[in-house]
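INPUT
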Amino acid sequence: MCGIVGYVGARPALGIVLDGLRRLEYRGYDSAGVAIVCDDELRTEKRAGKLSNLEKTLGDERFGSARADGAAARPLGRPPMVGIGDGTAGIGHTRWATHGGPTDRNAHPHLSRDGRIAVIHNGIIENFAKLVAELEADGVEFVSDTDTECVAHLLAAALTDLRAVGEPDGPQLLAAAMRRVVQRLEGAFTLLAVDAGIPGAVVGARRNSPLVVGRGVGEHYLASDVSAFIEHTRDAVELGQDQVVLITAGDIEITDFFGAPALGRDFHIDWDASAAEKGGYDYFMLKEIAEQPQAVADTLLGRLTEAGEIMLDEVRLTDQDLRDADKIFIIACGTAYHSGLVAKYAIEHWTRIPCEVELASEFRYRDPVLDRSTLVVAISQSGETMDTLMALRHAKEQKARVLAICNTNGSTIPRESDAVLYTHGGPEIAVASTKAFLTQLVACYLIGLHLAQVRGIKYADEVAAVVSQLHQVPDRLRQVLAEMEPVRQLARELAGANQVLFIGRHVGYPVALEGALKLKELAYMHAEGFAAGELKHGPIALIDEGTPVVCVVPSPAGRGVLHDKIVSNIQEVRARGARTVVIAEEGDTAVVPYADDLIYVPRTPTLLAPLLTTVPLQVLACEIAAARGHDVDQPRNLAKSVTVE
Ligand code: F6R
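OUTPUT
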């Protein structure tokens, strides 16, 4: 929710900030804005709508007064003043609106009254009403409806106070003022600020919201996530909770909110810059769907030791802790929750430990029974989802052990967990999750196997046999992807439908839920996923002549009963006029008479089948959305990283 970028160095900041915002636009695209410090002045520009609106307004300014190729950036006749394109320190923001509608006025940055301080913010300041009232009593007139604007005014007041008591001017003063302000804030925030009077410095602060530092040579970066600066540096610093960071061209200084020196955690980014580009695909989503074989292979890489043991990443849990676990809760949201639903089948089957899957947003409100022998598995691509983070903290307060599955190094959820298994999916830019889902499934399978192994339920050779099946998945995925043309054709045919229903049984049920979620969020169509057996208890009434029903069929080789039952369900919906789209295992001829459209996927063990059966549903949703003329990568009302509850 909201993307934030800051830069200080020797190069023009505007282009670097805009490029960073482009990479962060998936986090929110209601408005965008920049503030650049230029020769003791602050230049800002902000616009409602996508980043392209702001870029249009800025025109050639991003190239500064002298472009590298020597061409004039400005129309002839304009005075050679230091423009917004020339400043070498600046901040930028792309917004997902919380307080105040998505207008120019509410776009960030927000300024102090004298226009010399600019602030951008991700999160929600919960005590903003009290702060606004206080500032208004002091004569401040607010020009926006946001909670952020109060920070600009508070920062101005703090700087004035510090100067009045003789504190020397300079970057340290900006950091000291920020510390004063954040001590007064409640809620979740990442803040960045610049002051026209303190050139060459950007200050940041974070609480419950992401902020990473990019370490360059003679230049430094701040951003909501590393994709904003990977084309410039792969060396990053993860900030801890409640820290203030000051970047200048030559230095990075981190303190806590009270000024005590603090340390971040250095890490190296192993994604390359091209991973965050479209690479010839029309949409990031299509590229990310195509990357799934590699993402699955990368997530499996190096997980099995020579002794046949599964390796997690950061483990602050002992095997004894895992042996003591008598109950597992999986907490997650949206697509990640669906991966948890699949995991339940595998984990219970392999470990015999009861496993419940909970929507993270509901978890702590129902007072779940947790203690130190409960293992909580938190699944999050971004590692910043506030609902999941709050559920995780609740679990930790109750002394439960927490194991995170996460795609984002340097994010909050893995940092606050007792153990982590990173999915190596690479950056996922499209708002709709695809490769993150598949890699989360792989991570869940690995955790299930690891638990079974430490508890002595599975021997190394049994674990190795499943891992070897997993290693065959990338090739099978390539096969699925190579045969997607009929799905694209089907998508064009279904683009005009009013609704699409999805049914599945066993692990096919979460796949049905995921297929429906993808279609809702991308195509803005009514779509529902059902456990196939539930249809006759109500939802079958939705079926009308021609209603498309996508049926996820389990392997006939695995559990025959399951297979036969869903074949009966397919017949039931077809008898009521449904157009049946059947996803089945190749060689399954029993479904042929009941399938209006039949999509085969390669054979794979029943528990692992979601790794393959999900893919046609992703392609279907993406292509229906494109056929309906929607923005596939940035669906309306959504944002990639949901950092509010
Ligand atoms: C849907 C989607 C969302 C996320 C959910 C959790 O395509 O992407 O439902 O899965 O918001 O996000 P993370 O995994 O970042 O916690």
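end of record. Residues 51 and 294 are 31 Å apart (CA to CA).
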